């Protein structure tokens, strides 16, 4: 079958179904650059392909965990560039971490779109600020303050307010939150009261410290990271010539992790865009976990309101996790409440079945750590690489007991959030040595017996401490060896992908990776907080310390805070590809009272537990919602909605209502549909509401296709809820049975 004019042909289903689509990060390290624009689309599933081809107007991609969102948007940019629709220099892709931006640049380079800018919000703004500052303000840009904690401490001292170490950190975070939400010092107390924010100190004191901090910055001619965004916004607002310059440069924008955008970042994005709508956003409200920094999913949830003509694509095919992991993740969010929960994405695993998640209870924290280390050691012995295992916890202070347990078990580990890979001393030394050997070429006697690139790298790095076998135990020597071993593995992969590559080619690759912060994998178990694990994935994930008071954290008091804690656990669950363990302990230390309880979020999910209902407290309870055993609406384990004609998974709400693709043939009774429309028009007029408030067109089409003969069959049609069934059901069933519209209206009057 020929494709429509101007459209690339669709790939056969076998190229993407049943594992044919590459998982989110399990692509080849060094793939070949696609030969053409059409080749960029190869291997994408239908929804990813729809994203890649949606190159005009506003586009909103609602992408669940593990559904290949980065793959979809990088292929979208690359397809536009390779097809000549987008100019590389006119595209700005923004995300939230240097690692994510680096990964995006790396993927674009591999797809033949290397000229595209992929940066964090702060990096893009700083670049513009440095360029335009002399023209807009004059002189040099003030020095950037790398760490504001010391200046906040001085500001507090000048205000005669004593802060301990934890309070200093919390007040610093409050200042950052205030700036990204565009709250000035004088307004801080009122904003805290209005938003019911739980301030770490008296809001009046924080306001004082905040004001003094800003004064000290002005006195010393320094700016902080939040100022980078604020000053860029100010210049673009005040200088229309500069704003026009930026808009001529960048004409197409892509924003990843859009659920994490702050009001200040959204303001900057609006100024970059101007009156254009050439914007593609990607996000998942179910993964909003940074509200404490000012992030809000409202911009994502309101996107279709702001852009009524937007193309909306949902990615729900999960290529990362097994059905068992996905089922637990869906169940976890299935108990959520609030606006973000109303827009949750139900994932559909595309992987073969795996082991059931393990729920483990321990007597105390050391026993939990030791048990976790034993299970990790067994997995590694069974063939799971240490670098494909992670231990995730709620707060960083929980890491110490796991570091000790892993060291005692002889298992190598690495702390995420420590020094960046390319900034490590041994990695810098290795880079110098490799660069020197590359320059010397055949004149370096060290390479005389080295045949091929991997052998050359091993020979060079053996002078820096690399050996064929790792040193015993853990500590600095093991950390150094792991870094060098990661470079050796990278060279082996690079040489396998490009057999003719030279040492100079590898050095150039390392330089590009260092610039992008695209580090190779270090073979050690990852220890990380749940927040820092966002965007990462492992074959085996151990979620530890899942006790009440830690998950959710004790200071999460409001309904919104509790729901964010649930989403944080959801992020942790969806990091696992195959093995997932969830554990908790009954006491803090050996011999302690076993008074702890497992997290409420596991109720109804862990074996032997009942789901928690939601009770509304009365006036004596102070109002609000509390959790405890109680009735819960039953949610059956639903599979994916599939087209009843072609079998394709449906993600569009309208198609799911019809249970078929829009372009699949319809067996609708046209005459019945027209009778239902006539009845709806009169009925809507009787009750004084728009016609769609009775039933939407899609619901009427679904009724006309199904022709229900009973209340049960009618209730099974999407869009016919209990209230509408009670109000309009008799009339609709009468019309479906062949009665006239007039008879249906009589039945409607009888119902009233």
Structural overview:
The protein has 752 residues and is an alpha/beta fold. 44% of the residues lie in helices and 11% in strands. Strand 2 (91-95), helix 4 and strand 3 (117-120) form a beta-alpha-beta unit. The radius of gyration is 29 Å and the shape is globular. The two termini are 53 Å apart. Mean pLDDT is 82; it is low at 1-27 and 612-639.
Rg, Å, rounded: 29 Å
Instruction: Please give the alpha-carbon distance between the first and last residues.
Output: 53 Å
What is the strand tally? 18
Helical residue percent band: 40-55%
Beta-strand portion reads 5-15%
Tell me, briefly, the overall form.
globular
Structural class: alpha/beta
Biggest sheet, strands in spatial order?
3-2-6-7-1-8
Q: What is the helix tally?
A: 29
Strand and helix layout:
Elements: H1 37-40, H2 46-53, E1 59-63, H3 69-82, E2 91-95, H4 98-110, E3 117-120, H5 121-136, E4 143-144, H6 149-158, H7 165-180, H8 188-195, H9 203-220, E5 222-223, H10 225-238, H11 240-249, E6 252-255, H12 263-273, E7 279-283, H13 298-301, H14 303-306, E8 311-315, E9 317-318, H15 323-334, H16 339-342, E10 348-349, E11 358-364, H17 365-381, E12 389-393, H18 399-408, E13 413-415, H19 425-440, H20 453-461, H21 476-497, H22 503-516, E14 525-529, E15 538-543, H23 559-573, E16 576-587, E17 612-616, E18 625-629, H24 653-658, H25 670-687, H26 697-706, H27 711-715, H28 722-736, H29 741-751
Parallel strand pairs: 1-7, 1-8, 2-3, 2-6, 4-5, 6-7, 9-10, 11-16, 12-14, 12-15, 13-14, 15-16
Antiparallel strand pairs: 17-18
Helix pairs in contact: 2-3, 4-22, 5-10, 6-9, 10-11, 10-12, 15-23, 17-18, 19-22, 20-21, 25-26, 25-29, 28-29
């Amino acid at each position: 079958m020929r494709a429509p004019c101007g459209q690339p042909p669709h790939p056969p289903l076998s190229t993407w179904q049943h594992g044919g689509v590459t998982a989110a990060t399990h692509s080849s390290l060094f793939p070949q650059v696609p030969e053409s624009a059409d080749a960029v689309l190869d291997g994408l599933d239908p929804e990813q392909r729809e994203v890649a081809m949606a190159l005009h107007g506003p586009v909103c991609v609602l992408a669940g965990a593990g559904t290949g969102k980065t793959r979809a948007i990088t292929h979208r940019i690359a397809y536009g560039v390779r097809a000549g629709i987008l100019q590389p220099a006119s595209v700005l892709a923004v995300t939230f971490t240097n690692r994510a931006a680096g990964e995006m640049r790396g993927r674009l380079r591999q797809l033949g779109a290397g000229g595209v800018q992929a940066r964090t919000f702060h990096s893009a703004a700083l670049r513009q600020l440095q360029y335009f500052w002399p023209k807009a303000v004059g002189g040099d840009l003030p020095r950037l303050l790398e760490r504001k904690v010391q200046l906040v401490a001085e500001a507090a001292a000048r205000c005669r307010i004593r802060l301990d170490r934890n309070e200093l950190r919390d007040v610093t975070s409050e200042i950052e939150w205030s700036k990204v939400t565009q709250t000035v010092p004088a307004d801080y107390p009122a904003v805290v009261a209005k938003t019911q924010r739980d301030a770490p100190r008296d809001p009046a004191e924080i306001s004082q410290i905040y004001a003094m901090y800003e004064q000290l910055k002005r006195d010393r001619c320094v700016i902080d990271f939040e100022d980078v965004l604020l000053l860029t916004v100010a210049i673009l607002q005040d200088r229309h010539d500069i704003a026009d310059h930026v808009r001529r440069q960048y004409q197409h924008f892509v924003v990843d992790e859009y659920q994490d955008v702050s009001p200040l970042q959204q303001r900057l994005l609006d100024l970059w865009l101007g009156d254009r709508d050439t914007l593609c956003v990607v996000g998942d409200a179910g993964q909003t976990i940074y509200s404490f920094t000012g992030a809000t999913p409202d911009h994502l949830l309101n996107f279709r309101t702001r852009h009524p003509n937007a193309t909306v694509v949902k990615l729900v095919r999960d290529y990362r996790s097994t059905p068992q992991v996905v089922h637990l993740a869906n169940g976890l969010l299935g108990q959520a409440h609030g606006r973000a929960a109303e827009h949750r994405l139900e994932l559909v695993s595309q992987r073969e079945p795996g082991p059931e998640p393990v729920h483990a209870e321990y007597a105390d924290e050391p026993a939990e750590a030791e048990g976790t280390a034993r299970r990790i050691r067994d997995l590694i012995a069974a063939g799971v690489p240490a670098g494909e295992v992670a231990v995730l916890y709620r707060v960083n202070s929980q890491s110490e007991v796991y570091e000790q347990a892993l060291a005692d078990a002889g298992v190598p580990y690495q702390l995420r959030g420590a020094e960046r890979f390319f900034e490590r001393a041994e990695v810098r030394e290795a880079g110098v040595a490799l660069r020197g050997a590359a320059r010397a070429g055949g004149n370096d006697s060290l390479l005389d017996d080295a045949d091929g690139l991997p052998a050359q790298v091993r020979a060079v790095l053996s002078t820096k401490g690399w050996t064929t076998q790792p040193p015993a135990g853990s500590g600095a020597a093991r950390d150094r060896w792991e870094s060098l071993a990661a470079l050796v593995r990278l060279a082996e992969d690079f040489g396998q992908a490009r057999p003719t590559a030279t040492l100079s080619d590898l050095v150039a690759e390392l330089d590009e990776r260092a610039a992008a912060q695209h580090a190779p994998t270090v073979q050690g178990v990852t220890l990380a907080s749940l927040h820092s694990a966002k965007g990462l994935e492992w074959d085996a994930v151990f979620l530890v310390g899942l006790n009440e008071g830690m998950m959710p954290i004790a200071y999460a008091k409001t309904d919104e805070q509790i729901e964010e804690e649930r989403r944080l656990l959801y992020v942790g669950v969806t990091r696992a590809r195959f093995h997932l363990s969830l554990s908790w302990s009954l006491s803090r230390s050996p011999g302690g009272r076993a008074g702890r309880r497992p997290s409420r979020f596991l109720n109804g999910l862990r074996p032997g537990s009942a789901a928690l209902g939601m009770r509304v407290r009365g006036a004596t309870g102070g109002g609000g919602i509390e959790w405890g055993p109680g009735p819960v609406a039953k949610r059956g384990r639903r599979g994916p909605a599939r087209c009843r004609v072609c079998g394709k998974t449906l993600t569009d709400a309208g198609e799911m209502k019809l249970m078929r693709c829009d372009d699949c043939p319809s067996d609708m009774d046209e005459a019945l549909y027209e009778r239902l429309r006539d009845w709806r028009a009169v009925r809507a007029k009787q009750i004084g509401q728009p016609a769609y408030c009775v039933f939407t067109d899609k619901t009427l089409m679904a009724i006309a296709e199904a022709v229900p003969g009973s209340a049960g069959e009618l209730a099974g049609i999407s869009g016919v809820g209990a209230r509408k069934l009670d109000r309009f059901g008799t009339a609709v069933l009468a019309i479906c049975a062949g009665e006239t519209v007039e008879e249906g209206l009589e039945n409607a009057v009888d119902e009233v």
